[in-house]
Design brief:
This protein has seven helices and no strands. The protein has 154 residues and is mainly alpha-helical. It has two domains: 87 residues, Orthogonal Bundle (Hypothetical Protein Yqey, Chain: A, domain1), CATH 1.10.1510.10; 55 residues, Arc Repressor Mutant, subunit A.
């Protein structure tokens, strides 16, 4: 399975050849942001797919907020451009989960811990969250997941 950074680089070449300027610029900006994060600190790091997904979510949200600001200011053409970039970015994000799927993941995590002999209480919320977060990462709201886990343990 290819990782997300490789997919972005391959898509950048595809957009360049196809002459799709909006997608090309958007993907180039994303790659630049990833490179900045990797090389910007005291020591270079390698972002994994989870970190890249988190970065893409922030970039898409930022573009949506900017589009809303432009819409409120009456600049519909700029708002449309920002929305188009957000849609391009969101195409790289994993498909979101619904509440029923997340509850199923929580139930299986709780059952797994019970099978391991762990007595579940509110103190074991961290252990459940660790298992659930690994599967849900970036596909469902973290606060909602936390509330659902708390309700399952209560």
């Amino acid at each position: 399975m290819e990782n997300l950074k490789t997919r972005l680089r391959d898509d950048m070449k595809t957009h360049l050849k196809a002459g799709n300027k909006v997608a090309l610029t958007t993907v180039r900006n994303l790659i630049g942001e990833i490179n900045t994060r990797e090389k910007g600190g005291k020591t270079p790091i390698e972002l994994d797919d989870a970190a890249v997904i988190a970065l893409l979510q922030k970039e898409a949200a930022r573009r949506r907020e900017t589009a809303q600001t432009y819409t409120d200011a009456g600049a519909a053409d700029r708002a449309a451009a920002e929305s188009a970039e957000a849609e391009i970015i969101e195409a790289y994000l994993p498909s979101p989960l619904d509440a029923a799927a997340v509850q199923g993941i929580i139930d299986s995590a709780v059952a797994s811990l019970k099978a391991d002999g762990v007595e579940l209480s509110m103190r074991s919320m961290g252990a459940v969250m660790k298992l659930v977060s690994a599967e849900v990462a970036g596909r469902f709201d973290g606060k909602s997941v936390s509330d659902m886990v708390r309700a399952s343990l209560a």
